[in-house]
Specification:
This protein has 27 helices and twelve strands. By secondary structure, the protein is an alpha/beta fold. The strands form four sheets. The chain has a four-stranded mixed sheet with strand order 7-6-5-8. A four-stranded mixed sheet has the order 11-10-9-12. Helix 18 runs parallel beside helix 20 (531-553) and helix 25 (735-744) runs antiparallel to helix 26 (748-758). The two termini are 20 Å apart.
Length: 797
């Protein structure tokens, strides 16, 4: 249910008017005298059982994150009652930080939210000048959509604006009539198939009877309650070492959806700092960041998540006996001590390496490697919800690996660590616009000093060059050792394993890079922050990417490094390289095996490194990607059914082309879901459009740096991405025709014809059912990770 729009008027059949009239006539419509909400003594429907499923299946797909239109977040009863706001969280021109508006933290009652400018969408208790259904903004939005339906599976008229790059409209009751007249298709759910007559009748009756809500029930089992108590006791130990470790753990888990994997049906929790001790109701501190100074004594608490889970923010972390034993061994088994606990000042927030210096560095790095996918997800697919400011610093598809903790220099060499630590501070603490230039110069300079120090140290340590055993192999069991990252314009995804074709670039992350990325993009990032804060964050992430590329170049022949680097930094990036970055090591060799033919060009070098990397990580590589890399032509996987073999054989040719040979690739959205059906069976795939760039070194002007003829397509089993941009629904027997039609499409008009036949447009009669089936697929195949998909980016193909 999206509060925005400008669109033409469509007529409604008399039958629907009849349904609406019957609802209103048969309802016990209350009035709201003196701004008081009237509640019918007998409720026809339960919010949790009857109303929430409608909101979940029709509304939360747009109203589930910080970028929910008008801040109307419907994933919990508290969000429904809080209502909407005229202020947007995402404002690129904001010169000062805005007050945070986090549900469950920054206000605890409707009255407090009203004081912060939120207005009810359920009833007119703020105004008191209307009554019944006419006094409900939610009803009037739903009724507007019922009066003006869109033709089934049609493209939206150009007047209906969708996506995230246009202005939202947030009408109140006072100006709703003007809004409806100007935006006849501005009703809810916005720009999609609307509610059924039965759904509309049910939610209208609920509103008429007072729109009573109740929170999601939470009834932990005895085993779950015991786990909560045990873990809260662990986090709240009073020894100085234990307090520092708990602070470190909290700052690394505060965005996690924590669960107990050994307990069937475990709820999800969030780790918070509360002013109340275990056993009492949780009262979270209202600090903006997890490392902001607390204003009172606090305790670490596990608060249940009483809301519908949204895929974008659902980043899971399991706690069990094995985890506790691992942490005890990593952090508390060694004999280390500290004289005084660090504070929460500017310097402590800006440099976590100094703040947590007392904790053995190797333990910190190994802790992050144990769940490397989780940490990469937090800064690649975190709760920010709209991240082009950050994501335009990375390429659309690349692999990420990590230095082995037994050889990584920072965690193993105390002298080098003492030299490097002062250079690892992070910008963004000062939100003043005047601080932008000076902060950038300071931290850019320190980063370049660090990179020079690192390059010199590694060259002197191994004058014969890098070796393959420096890359972490997951100890032979941890599949987090090999990760693939996909960028989808203003969001991104992470998947274990090496997926897609061999990429143009690979990131090698050591502990300083992994920890700095996490602190810069997660711990220290403020979604409510100013232009200065967000610009500093983006500019430093550019340096992080550049550092990861420097680390990778150690593993390729010295004579090919400059050519590879030049490929990544084409055009004006050469000037930025000269001004902002530091030089390459073009002398120290590598011990990796490269034949003369391997050194012939950049692609050959990358393929040879990829082959050696795959061999190094063979024990943790997982399922081979035979859909996207099939060099020998024999890509039949014995674990697939005959139908899956057939599907992959048909889809594989799409993944072997580029925009130059297959013109439809640059025309496709970033993420398209594909459902293939045959009778009662269905199979799900994702078509990922990877856009090629001349460089990703600048904050603006991305369109001018695209290289569409070099674009390619990665095809993944299952769903990938939180924001599907489109979807196709194809019967198995029609799949050859679908593939042939895509191969023949050369322009937008021919792609539109493909969508006419197999596309699931926003107006498709089964739009919501098919979207729910994609979620159901995840619940069947990986239930812990299942959450609602967001359609804010769903395109008008």
């Amino acid at each position: 249910m999206k509060f925005l729009a400008r669109s033409p008027r469509w007529l409604l059949g008399a039958g629907l008017f009849t349904v609406i009239a019957l609802i209103i006539a048969c309802s016990d419509i209350p009035t709201y005298p003196h701004a008081e909400q009237a509640v019918a003594p007998r409720q026809s429907f339960s919010y949790q059982n009857d109303i929430k499923p409608i909101l979940e299946n029709r509304c939360m797909a747009c109203h589930g994150c910080y970028d929910a239109p008008c801040q109307l977040k419907l994933t919990s009863a508290d969000g429904v009652k809080r209502g909407a706001s005229l202020l947007q969280v995402y404002d690129a021109a904001r010169l000062e930080d805005m007050p945070p508006t986090r549900l469950g933290t920054d206000a605890h009652s409707e009255a407090q939210w009203r004081e912060q400018g939120f207005f009810s969408v359920l009833h007119d208790a703020d105004e008191g000048n209307a009554s019944g259904l006419d006094g409900s903004l939610l009803f009037r939005m739903l009724e507007l959509a019922q009066r003006n339906p869109l033709p089934p599976n049609s493209r939206l008229p150009d007047e209906i604006k969708i996506g995230t790059d246009h202005a939202f409209s947030c009408p109140t009751l006072e100006n709703f009539a003007d809004y409806a007249q100007a935006n006849p298709h501005g009703g809810m759910p916005y720009a999609t198939t609307g509610l059924s007559a039965a759904e509309f009748a049910r939610i209208s009756q609920w509103i008429a009877e007072g729109a009573v809500t109740e929170p999601m029930p939470w009834q932990p089992s005895a085993a779950e309650q015991a786990s909560i108590e045990r873990w809260e006791a662990f986090f709240n130990q009073r020894g100085q070492r234990e307090q520092l470790v708990s602070r470190y753990l909290f700052e690394h888990l505060f965005v996690a959806h924590i669960h107990f994997p050994s307990i069937s049906g475990s709820s999800f929790y969030e780790l918070v700092r509360s002013s109340t001790p275990p056993g009492e109701p949780i009262m979270p501190l209202r600090t903006v960041r997890p490392n902001d100074a607390p204003d009172k004594a606090f305790y670490y608490r596990l608060r249940p998540l009483r809301e519908t889970l949204v895929e974008k923010t659902h980043i899971t972390y399991g706690l069990d006996d094995q985890r506790m034993q691992r942490w005890q061994q990593l952090f508390l088994a060694d004999d280390w001590d500290l004289a005084v606990l660090p504070g929460y000042g500017y310097s402590e927030r800006a440099n976590p390496f100094a703040t947590f210096n007392a904790i053995p560095a190797k333990a910190r790095y190994q802790f992050m490697l144990d769940t490397a996918e989780y940490f990469v997800r937090t800064f690649i697919r975190g709760p920010v919800c709209r991240g082009q400011v950050a994501t335009d610093v990375i390429r659309d598809q690349f692999w990420t690996v990590f230095e082995d903790p037994s050889q990584e220099a920072y965690v193993n060499d105390p002298l080098y660590r003492s030299q490097a630590t002062p250079l690892l501070g992070l910008p963004g603490q000062d939100s003043d616009l005047l601080a932008l230039g000076s902060a950038w110069l300071e931290y850019n300079g320190k980063r370049n000093q660090y990179l020079e120090l690192r390059g010199k140290h590694y060259a002197e340590r191994k004058p014969s060059g890098s070796s393959l055993d420096e890359i972490w192999d997951g100890e032979g069991y941890n599949q987090d050792a090999l990760l693939t990252i996909f960028r989808h314009h203003d969001s991104a995804s992470v998947r274990r394993g090496l997926w897609g074709r061999v990429p143009d670039t690979i990131w090698v992350m050591d502990y300083p890079l992994l920890e700095r990325t996490y602190y810069e993009l997660v711990v220290n990032f403020n979604v409510f922050g100013s232009l200065s804060h967000q610009a500093q964050t983006r500019l430093y992430f550019d340096l992080i990417r550049n550092g990861a590329e420097h680390n990778f170049l150690r593993y390729v022949p010295a004579e090919r490094r400059q050519a590879l680097y030049d490929q990544w930094y084409q055009g004006q990036a050469k000037l930025k390289d000269a001004i902002a970055y530091t030089g390459l090591d073009l002398e120290t060799p590598t011990t990796l095996s490269y034949g003369s033919s391997d050194r012939s060009d950049n692609r050959a070098v990358m393929r040879r490194f990829a082959a050696q990397l795959a061999e190094r990580g063979s024990a943790v590589a997982g399922t081979p990607d035979t859909l996207n890399r099939c060099p020998q032509g024999n890509c039949q996987r014995p674990d697939l059914t005959p139908e899956q073999q057939q599907i992959q054989q048909l889809l594989r040719p799409l993944a072997l082309e580029t925009g130059a040979s297959l013109p439809v690739i640059p025309l496709l959205p970033e993420v398209s879901f594909l459902r293939v059906t045959s009778g009662d069976e269905r199979w799900v795939y994702s078509l990922i459009h990877n856009r090629a760039h001349a460089n990703v070194a600048f904050m603006f002007g991305e369109e001018d740096r695209l290289l569409p003829q070099q674009d390619d397509l990665t095809i993944m089993e299952g769903t990938l991405g939180s924001y599907p941009n489109f979807s196709f629904d194809v019967e198995l027997q029609a799949l050859p025709d679908f593939v042939t039609a895509l191969q023949a499409a050369t322009d937008s008009e021919s792609l539109e014809r493909v969508a006419d036949r197999w596309g699931v447009r926003r107006t498709h009669p089964q739009f919501w059912e098919i979207l729910a089936d994609f979620r159901q697929y995840v619940e069947e195949t990986d239930p812990t990770q299942a959450g609602l998909f967001d359609i804010n980016r769903y395109q008008n193909l």
